[in-house]
Amino acid sequence: MPLTPSQLDRHARHIVLPEIGGVGVARLTAAHVVLVGMGGIGCPALQYLAGAGVGRLTLIDDDTVDLSNLQRQTLFTPADIGQPKARRAADWVQGFDPAIMVTPVIERITPANAAALLTGADVILDGTDNFATRLLVSDTATALHIPLVSAALGRFQGQIGTFAGWLPDQPCYRCFVGDAFDAEDCDTCAEQGVLGAMVGMVGSFAAMEAVRAITGFGDDPGGKLHLIDGLKPLWRTLKIAKDPGCRTCGNPTSPA
Ligand SMILES: [Zn+2]
């Protein structure tokens, strides 16, 4: 579908980038991104994905806005306290660009509903705050063959990676963290604290990786994990190998 005159104006700064161009913007307007978690990572990620004109956005979060969220969850104001985050974030999208089809899902993602909620996405962006959910989202994304941008942080440390574990040479998120954390379900932000501006950096980086996955600009992100240390500050990129024994994407029954 050709871009409208309004879309050409709105996305002019992406269109002039040769690595994105009109073709990339058209891919973005045709894309469906599911964001899991509308907290500190989800808020800036959503703003940049909406800014990029991603045509369809599904926002999954069962939580409501709390006063202590405003330090880092940049979409929300005191008037939103007590309201569902997914609903208020979807309202923001509709005000920002009515051309975007946005669906709030005020539910917790569980093993029972994960496949139904994630099916049909072109990219999944996970900004949730506990291992059990992150592993569930990763296992489902791998089973559905959907690229996963997984972003997390605590205190001053952030990490972002794009995973395509169904491919024979690519790791999944479980290859990286293993099986020990499936039962972990804690709000690490409340326990450890987190620097608000760090969350913003990780969230906008995750949006960039989702745009990369849709448009194909730049280098292949597969198998790389980016670590940001806000204390130094310092940025490192690690290579993650596929774990042949991974129960999600490996082949644990075959002899090593
Ligand atoms: Zn794996």
What coarse outline follows from CA principal-axis ratios? globular
**Spans with pLDDT under 50 lasting ≥5 residues?**
none
Number of helices: 10
Average pLDDT rating? 94
Order of helices and strands: HHHEHEHEHEHEEHHHEE
Which cofactor or ligand species appear? zinc ion
How helix-rich are the residues, as a percent range?
Answer: 25-40%
Number of strands: 8
Sheet with most strands: strand arrangement: 3-2-1-4-5-6-7-8
Instruction: Report the biggest beta sheet as strand number plus sense, adding barrel if it closes.
Output: 8 strands, mixed
Measured on Cα atoms, how large is the radius of gyration? 18 Å
Beta-strand residue percentage: 15-25%
What class do helices, strands and sheet pairing give?
Answer: alpha/beta
Distance between the termini: 49 Å
Provide structural commentary:
With 256 residues, the protein is α/β, with parallel strands linked by helices. It has ten helices and eight strands. The protein has helices spanning 5-10, 12-15, 21-30, 42-51, 85-96, 114-118, 131-144, 173-177, 188-192, 196-215, and strands at 32-36, 56-60, 101-105, 123-126, 148-154, 157-163, 224-229, 234-239. It has an eight-stranded mixed beta sheet with strand order 3-2-1-4-5-6-7-8, with helices on both faces. α5 links the parallel β2 and β3. α4 crosses α10. It is globular. The chain binds zinc ion. Residues 165, 171-172, 174-175, 243, 246, 248-250 line the site of zinc ion (ZN). Zinc ion (ZN) binds at residues 165, 171-172, 174-175, 243, 246, 248-250.
